[in-house]
């Protein structure tokens, strides 16, 4: 499985998670079978509009299976879901390694579409 976490910079497991999916500078792609991490620049981040949808497409193109982030716009959430990518909610600022650890422990809740949530 390929788990994607938005990152503030290209770095390591010690890098902070970006607070906005569509505007993240980079995405950390973690192969959950091998624990290998790869950073991919989010080319959609600078768009005036549609950054979330562009970021969702980038994740789909890179073979993402799951995305864990703090804030998804409704269009980004729909685009990820339509691509068959599972969407997980984060509720506190963490490092990538902490989110990955929470994922492995089954502590991350699946995001829900609609008003009142992060989407």
Automatic annotation (TrEMBL):
Q: Where is the Dinitrogenase iron-molybdenum cofactor biosynthesis domain?
A: 14-104
Q: Which residues cross the membrane?
A: none
Q: Where is the signal peptide?
A: none
The domain of life for this entry's organism is Bacteria
Identify this protein by name.
Predicted Fe-Mo cluster-binding protein, NifX family
Q: What is the lineage of its organism?
A: Bacteria, Bacillati, Bacillota, Clostridia, Halanaerobiales
């Amino acid at each position: 499985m390929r788990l994607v976490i938005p990152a503030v910079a290209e770095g390591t497991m010690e890098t902070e998670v970006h607070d906005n999916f569509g505007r993240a500078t980079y995405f950390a792609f973690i192969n959950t079978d091998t624990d290998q991490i790869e950073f991919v620049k989010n080319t959609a981040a600078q768009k005036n509009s549609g950054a979330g949808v562009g970021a969702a497409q980038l994740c789909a193109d890179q073979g993402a299976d799951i995305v864990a982030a703090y804030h998804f716009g409704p269009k980004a959430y729909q685009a990820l879901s339509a691509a068959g990518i599972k969407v997980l909610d984060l509720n506190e600022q963490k490092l990538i390694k902490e989110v990955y650890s929470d994922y492995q422990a089954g502590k991350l809740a699946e995001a829900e579409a609609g008003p009142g949530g992060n989407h």
